[in-house]
Structure formats: structure tokens, C-alpha cells
């Protein structure tokens, strides 16, 4: 574990790490374990890492299970499913622990904390503190105040819509591959999405800060970074650089071996970005996650996505023309309000026409504050379920055929970790395929040639080329 803030984080002077540490009683964390239960998107996973890092700097010890902890935090995403119910049910499982251990404190953060604020404590008094997505850096102080005053607190669960976004990467053990936030929030207001309400309006980090983070991570042994934002394509730094400029600089000026990014928005994905990807291959990986959500233009308009089916397909053509080997994945919402069977068929033909190797498909579920939640023509649950299953069945067959092309090829695999089975290691190809093969753990962090012997949609099996 690293306790030195500058070493652990590559902190940028004045860039906002633990801004309130001057008032923090450092003894609060002494002898206390912290466990964070996380569900949601990569953004939430990154936030959890940030919370652990900040609490570790305040002398809390990250622990592996809730049973070992004095502080339990539930960091919950509210994009899908029934997040608030999940939080209540998880808190309920800690009842006995709370009764036996008067030192135990339970907190809720993430989008659910942002969305529900004091309601969480009103409905579930076992919760001691709630905090929003913009107040993570104040977490050590918040926890200290909860211990010192022994009273439930809700802290600034309010999104600062246009506050500067100076938040350096905090990651305790980055390993071979890690994520670097380049922006947060979103201005797009897709009619189904809660993100602009829970994470606020879009804010980009200064280009120089992102570059400094990546250089620091390289010094710590990181070989691959994924640039992360709700919509990376609308990144704009104070100096006028756009996302293509940032990608080029990260690839050329940091010493990193591989760069990825997620998530893209089709309306902002442009030729300049494709040109930068092409010019910087293989360092910039030939893999793009480009959510289309629906294959039907009327539904896309109701979703407020800002493009039609035809325009999406034109972008795909543009990408495939420049990068013929590109691997594509996407997000899809099935059963958006008003979606007819015919319109759903457009989603199926879109999947087939583009040839996505991976799809992340979900049934539409209404989210608070969003426009689509108020649409009256909601699709019945059983229809949504049937359509989703049908989509997965069709894609499963397609995906098996698509990945067959890897068999017999030799791919460059960046080794990430040793498997639980001794002698086996796992790495990732530029196409974002996981590969399992026999090899020594000494290869972790190296890029090695692996001949693919068997391809499945989610993983490949191969043999190290000696
Ligand atoms: S682009 Fe749309 S779906 Fe993505 S985060 Fe923004 S509002 Fe949500």
C-alpha cells in the first residue's frame, strides 16, 4: 500500500486531491478498516478506487470483506435496474453487524447518494452518511465528522454543474492496465438517461493534467490506459484541444504502450478521430465501443440521440474504410417507450449489418427525472423480455461466427495477470479480446505473440509463440 499522496497519485499541485485535508483528524482512520461495495459503470469503479485512496491517506485500511470493516460504503450507480432497492437490501444485510459493533458506520455514495440525498437516511436510519458524486474528495472529512459528532449526515449531494474539473487519477495498485478520467458529466440529455442529473454537466480535465497522469502511471509500470468519460468525443480542453488532439498526445508524448477510450457518442465521432487512430496504430487499439441504442430513426429521435440510423451507418462506413480490422461493440436499449415490433426489427438488422462482436443490451427501465419516464406508451415487461432474449439469441450465433476469424492468427497479447490455475496467464489483444494461454507470471506487463487455437465470443484460447 502506498501512503505518500504524491507518489500514489502523481498529484498535480493545486489540482484538488483531498482539498479539505487541513481540517482532518488523521487519527480517525487509525485501526479502522474500510470496505466499499460497488455496482455500476466503470466511472463508479474508478470512483471507488478514488475513495479507497483518499481514505487510505487518512489512515483507514482497505479490507476485503464487510465483516472486517468499521466503515462500509455502498457506491451505487442508478443508471439501470432498481438501485435504491438494492442499496436498502444491502444495508439490511448489515443489521446484525451494526447491532454487535457500535463503531460500524454505513455510508451511501455514487449516483444513488446524489439522487436520493436525505431520503436514504429517512427511510433507512441504519445509514450514517450520504454523499454525492461531486463530493468524493471530501469523504475523509465526512467520515471523520460522522465519528466525531456521532450523527447522520448528508454532504453536499449537489452537482456543481460548471465547476472546474481538476481531479487527478488516484489509483492504489494500477497493475498493467488502468483507467484515466478525462471528463465527467454529460450535456446530451438522452431522454432515457439519468447521468446529466446525477453527474452534472460535462466538464473536461485540462490536457496537461491528463498527460501528466499518464506519464506518472507509465513510471509506475502501467502499459495501457483507457481514457474515460461519459462522452469522450466531446472532450474539449481549456487550450482548445479536442479529443482527437488529446488521443494523439497521449499516444505520442507519454511513453504509454497502448491507449483505448470509452465511451463514444456517434453524433460526435468524426473523421479527425479516425485519422488519429489510424496514424497511431498499433498504439491506439483498433477497438471502438459505439453505442447505437436503437436501429430505428423514430426511436432515436425520441431518445434525443442526435443521429439517425443512416447517419450511424455512415459513421461505421467511415471507420471501416480507414481501419478495416476494427472491432466494434455497442450498447442497445430494447423496448424503449413506443417501440413497435417493426422498429425492434431495425435494431436486429443494425446488429447484423454492422457485425458487432460484442453487444451490451438492456431492457428499457424508467429513471427518475428523465423525459422518457413520463412517456405514456411504455412497452409491457414481457414484451421487453422476449425482445431482449431474441436479440441475444441472434447475436450469440453471429458472434460465434465472427470470432472464428481469430483461429490460427497470431495476436499481440499484453499479459495482465496470472490465472488461478497454476501455469496459466491472461492478457488482452488490441481488439480487446481476453486470451488465456500457458505461460509464466514473469510475462505480466509484456506484450507477447500468441497463436489463437480456439475462439469463443468472450474469450480466446492460444499458445505462446516462442
Ligand atoms: S450521451 Fe446520453 S446516454 Fe450517454 S451519458 Fe450522456 S445523456 Fe447519458
Report on this model:
The chain has 466 residues and is an alpha/beta fold. It folds into 3 domains: 17-155, Response regulator (Rossmann fold), CATH 3.40.50.2300; 177-402, tm_1862 like domain (pyruvate-formate lyase- activating enzyme), CATH 3.80.30.20; 407-464, Nucleic acid-binding proteins (OB fold (Dihydrolipoamide Acetyltransferase, E2P)), CATH 2.40.50. 33% of the residues lie in helices and 21% in strands. It contains 15 helices and 19 strands. The strands form 5 sheets. It has a 6-stranded parallel beta sheet with strand order 2-1-3-4-5-6, with helices on both faces. Strand 13 (327-334), helix 14 (341-354) and strand 14 (358-363) form a beta-alpha-beta unit. The protein starts with a helix and ends with a strand. Mean pLDDT is 88; it is low at 1-22. It binds iron/sulfur cluster.
Short recap of the structure:
The chain folds into three domains: 17-155, Response regulator (Rossmann fold, 3-Layer(aba) Sandwich); 177-402, tm_1862 like domain (pyruvate-formate lyase- activating enzyme, Alpha-Beta Horseshoe), CATH 3.80.30; 407-464, Nucleic acid-binding proteins (OB fold (Dihydrolipoamide Acetyltransferase, E2P), Beta Barrel), CATH 2.40.50.140. Helices cover 33% and strands 21% of the residues.
